[in-house]
Design brief:
By secondary structure, this protein is an alpha+beta fold. It has 11 helices and 7 strands.
């Protein structure tokens, strides 16, 4: 995930633009991220408190709804960055950009600001008020652990979700559950398996008519290795291949659109958002 610009500053037009291009929070600020305690659970009350803080602290630069005023539009900042990068930006500021540090507000208020900014672009406010315990039951019932690992338990064919709540906003988690192929993991916050994007899908058609569908693990001048839906690795010789085609917007992860109710989706989002420190 890319890392954001600022949420407020004396020279606002520059700040948010620079940070959106940064590869990680550590790279953005030139040092280790600011330490903090576990992220509190997002609630309608924390979003409301964050809204009041935002209007008094940040709206002069970014508008009362984040759509921009003297400074840039940050409506998509929460979705693109995730809670941790938002927190780090607020806590540390962005050197040389006009985005100041708001560390003096304290952790509680910084997380409230994160909750409010993260609420921009959510289809509904309900995602923030889901029940994490019910969401865990939905996670277990749908056998998500067959592909995903949490704290060392589960499968490895999908991303490790142990800290997904710190790098993915509730809004983006909601989008992923509905359209996983259109929201494939990218960036350095969910570990890649190799030098290639870990979850891009390819179809390999052999000269004998056999087809393989999988994610590319490795490739050289003569061979290509694919990981199939079950996690098995297949190595193919290129001289036996008729064509190799990248399959866009495709994922082995199923969509939960129409499979879960809105309430169940919000509960599952709340559970995923709690992973990595949120309580």
């Amino acid at each position: 995930m890319n890392v954001i610009r600022s949420l407020c500053g004396a020279v606002p037009g520059i700040a948010l633009g620079i940070v959106l291009m940064a590869p990680s929070a550590t790279a953005q600020f030139g040092g280790p991220p600011a330490a903090h305690g576990p992220r509190p659970r997002t609630t309608p009350e924390s979003i409301a408190a964050g809204k009041a803080l935002f209007e008094g602290t940040c709206a002069n630069c970014h508008g009362v709804d984040g759509s921009g005023a003297n400074g840039p539009n940050i409506r998509d900042a929460g979705t693109r960055l995730g809670p941790e990068a938002l927190y780090q930006t607020l806590h540390t500021g962005v050197l040389g950009s006009g985005m100041p540090s708001f560390a003096s507000l304290g952790e509680e208020k910084l997380w409230q600001l994160v909750d409010y900014v993260s609420s921009f672009g959510q289809p509904t406010g309900a995602a923030a008020s889901g029940d994490p315990q019910k969401g865990k039951a939905i996670y277990d019932t749908n056998a998500c652990s067959s592909c995903h690992m949490i704290d060392g338990q589960g499968g490895s064919s999908g991303p490790d979700l142990s800290k997904v709540g710190t790098v993915r906003s509730a809004a983006l988690l909601h989008k992923i559950l509905l359209d996983p192929g259109g929201n494939l993991p990218t960036g350095d916050d969910l570990q890649e398996r190799a030098q290639y994007p870990a979850y891009e899908m390819y179809r390999v058609v052999m000269k004998n008519g056999k087809e393989l569908l999988g994610t590319r693990v490795n490739e050289d001048s003569f061979t290509m290795q694919l990981r199939d839906e079950s996690g098995n690795i297949h190595s193919v010789q290129k001289f036996d291949v008729k064509e190799i085609v990248r399959v866009p917007d495709k994922s082995f992860m199923p969509t939960y659109k129409g499979k879960l109710t809105d309430e169940q989706l919000n509960d599952l989002v709340a559970y995923l958002a709690s992973l990595g420190g949120a309580k």
